[in-house]
Amino acid sequence: MMKNGKNPDPNTLYPIAGYFDEIYVKPAIKNSNIIVGDFTYIADSDFERHVTHFYEWNGDKLIIGKFCQIAKGVEFVMNGANHQMNAVSTFPFYTLEGWNMNPPSKNDLPLKGDTIIENDIWIGQNAVILPGVHIGNGAIIGANSVVGSDVDPYTIVVGNPAKFLRKRFDDELIELMLKWKWWDKKIEEINTLIPVLTNSHLDEVKKIIKEFLGK
To answer: CA-CA distance, 143 to 158, in Å (whole number)?
Structure first.
């Protein structure tokens, strides 16, 4: 049982009583091509307006895992933002009325595929995630960063274009975290793990995770 006698509920829209500018994303989703895991939240009351250039005919998906933290002003730019780049003009005549052009084939468009954000990722304020990016578990995206390439698990990237700043932990702890996958455990167990998840004594955390993993 959590504080105030309430259990965490991934299907509630407003996770903070009386505060309407932060929502759990999953229960707010209407677009079937957006898939979001439990307890991921955004500092806004409307998630889908942060997903731009998202056109059904491209067939791309935005996939976000569990327990991600999305700050105010973050934008997920989807493949519809891309223009044909292998011709002498990038102007999208086919999208506008009156121009005699059929849509180009998908092979002529720089489509990057699905955008995948894994679990427990913190995306800082006003960051922009470009099409087809894959961000690994536990990564941190700095405020105002523009992410155009994949981000490894448990790394920090910053800037425009976003560049590697540092790993959050040493390789041993990163490997342990990726094996442990705390975000996939049941709510009741996660509740008991909070002292471990919020412990800044990382050598101690390593020992505890090894015990959980039976090492």
So the answer is: 7
pTM of the model: 0.94
Report d(CA 202, CA 184) in Å as an integer: 21
Model confidence over 139-167: pLDDT tens digits?
A: 999 999 999 999 999 999 999 999 999 99
Omega within 30 of 0 (cis) for the link into 195 = no
Q: How far apart are CA 122 and CA 73, in angstroms?
A: 13
Cβ neighbours of 57 (radius 10 Å) = 8
Contacts of 164 (CB under 8 A, 6+ apart): 152, 155, 156, 157
Tokens of 111: 């489509």
> What are the CB-based long-range contacts (under 8 Å, 24+) for 182-187?
182/120, 183/37, 183/65, 183/66, 183/67, 183/119, 183/120, 183/137, 184/66, 187/7, 187/8
Q: Among 150, 126, 125, 128, which Cα is nearest to 139's?
A: 150
CA distance 65 to 190: 16
Residues 166 and 181 sit within 8 Å (Cβ to Cβ): no
Residues taking part in catalysis: 83
Q: What are the tens digits of pLDDT across the range 44-76? A: 999 999 999 999 888 899 999 999 999 999 999
Concatenated DSSP letters for 29-67? ---TTEEE-TT-EESSS-SGGGEES--GGG---EEE-SS
Lookup: tokens for 99: 């121009």
Contact criterion met (CB below 8 Å) for 88 and 63: no
